[in-house]
Structures are given as structure tokens and as C-alpha cells.
Amino acid sequence: MNEELLLSVSEIALCAGTKIMEFYGDRHFSLKEDQSPVTQADIVASEYICRALKDITPYATSSEENALSYEERKNLECFWLIDPLDGTKGFIECSHGFSVNIALIVHNQPTLGVVYAPALQQFYCGLKNYGAFCITENLQEVSSTNLKSYWQKMDGESKCPTRTPLACDSAHHSSEQTRAFIKRYQLQSVIRDSSLKICALANGEADLYPRFCGTKEWDTAAADIILQETGGIILDIHTKQPLCYNKKNVKNPYFVAFSRGQVGGWIYNDFIKNNWD
């Protein structure tokens, strides 16, 4: 994996975001079998990303809107895992926190990830053993010829280390268990949507992200490698191990994500030693 591939995927995510914004304000949607909403923006972005990735690599693509079956992907060494519009409910409501998520899974772990929030003009990317980067200002000036020059390297350090630790919670998918975790550790909470909650940890804007509510692999994979490259980690509440990908069932276990500054700290250690069933 190399920088050139990361740049190419970054451009694809930026273009997908432009296509999504063409539908912004359109509140029409239908319901999938699991009763989650899907919009025309989801479908158009998914089709575009899958075509564009096929043009630059030979790897198969598995999108939330057109997922590979387990039989199709179980023996794949590499494949793309995509959520073309993470945060569809927020998109329908015309909030700003939805994102494009693109991850490359290699040997069942994310090794490249790009997250782009077009309404917020926030961009994040990461590559295994290379680093994690963001663009949160002047994104309108970015083009394919100058993209790298706008990257700002992220180190996961808190932007306000003396504050009470901040925990990300979800506007649409909070839970009683999540709120109990936040109360247990006397954390302040901040609402974020989509995979931007994990990106907030990577960028030092928050410290923890307890998720005691359902997610799927495409919700977390891209941001997972971004967080890892800043020294953070996402741990399964049962095994206390990092999340696994390319499972037969694509549902993630409940988890807690820790920023670099929280790894090895007292909340982290208390989490490790306790049973969260």
C-alpha cells in the first residue's frame, strides 16, 4: 500500500461527496429490509465509488448498498469496504454530520481509510504505517494536483488535555448503556454523527467513544485505521481486543474507542478489567 493509492482514494471520496450534495435537501427515501433508510444519494454515491475503485485496483468492492456475501469475500486477501453515505438519517434531516467511508481490508483488518464529510467540509485519511491526516479548513481550495499539500498530520494528542474527558455519543443511536458508561466515568458528552465520532478522537477533539448500540463493519473500518495511526484503538467490550473485519456476520460487537491519550489510562484499565455484559 502506498501514498499514491491513498491520494487516489481520497479524490474518489471527495468526488462522491460532491455527488451526494447534489441531493442534499431531498427528503425522499425508501426502507431496506432491516428498516434502515436509503436515499438516491446513497445509491448514486455507491455506484460511483465502486466504479472508480475498479478503475484503480483489481480488488472486489463490498458496499453497504451492494454487499458481497460471505461466500464471495471469505477467502479474499484484499477488498474494499464502503459506506457511501454514513449517517443517512441525518442526511435526510439536513444535518451536516454524514460522511463517505472507504476502507481497504487486507487480511481481515483495515489498512487504508478515508472519511469525508462534505457538508462540514472535513476530510480524514489514514494508511497503515504511514500516518493519519486531516483537512478541516480551506477544503474548497483542494484539487487533485494539490491535495497532499493540504494534509495536516494528526498525532491523536488532546487539543485540551486539562479538560474533563469528552465522550462522543450519537444523535440517533445512543443507548441506556452508553449513557451509563458516560455517567460512570463522569465524562462530558458531545454529539457527533457517523464515523466522525472516531475521527474526533484521532484529531484530539474528543477522548472516548463508547458504542453500546449496533454498528456494522462498513461503519467503522475507515475511521478505525485512521484512529490506529494516531495511537488510538477500538476494543470489543467482551474480548477487549481490536475489532475484527470480514466476519461471517458483518455486525460489530459493542465497543469502546480510546484516543491515544486515553490508552493505558485509568478509564482504559478499568474498562479492561470489568465485565460489560
Could you please say which CATH topology of the largest domain applies here? Fructose-1,6-Bisphosphatase, Chain A, domain 1
Oligomeric status: single chain
What's the rounded overall pLDDT mean? 94
Largest sheet: 7 strands, mixed
Strand order in space, largest sheet: 3-4-5-6-7-8-9
CATH class descriptor name of the largest domain: Alpha Beta
- Give start-end ranges of low-pLDDT stretches: none
Going by CATH, the architecture of the largest domain would be: 2-Layer Sandwich
Task: Outline the structure in words.
This protein is α+β, with helices and mostly antiparallel strands and 277 residues long. It folds into two domains: 151 residues, Fructose-1,6-Bisphosphatase, subunit A, domain 1 (Fructose-1,6-Bisphosphatase, Chain A, domain 1, 2-Layer Sandwich); 108 residues, D-Maltodextrin-Binding Protein, domain 2, CATH 3.40.190.80. 31% of the residues lie in helices and 25% in strands. It is built from nine helices and 14 strands. Strands 3-4-5-6-7-8-9 form a seven-stranded mixed β-sheet. A three-stranded antiparallel β-sheet has the order 12-14-13, with helices on both faces. The longest helix is centred in the N-terminal third of the chain and has 19 residues. It is globular, with a radius of gyration of 18 Å.
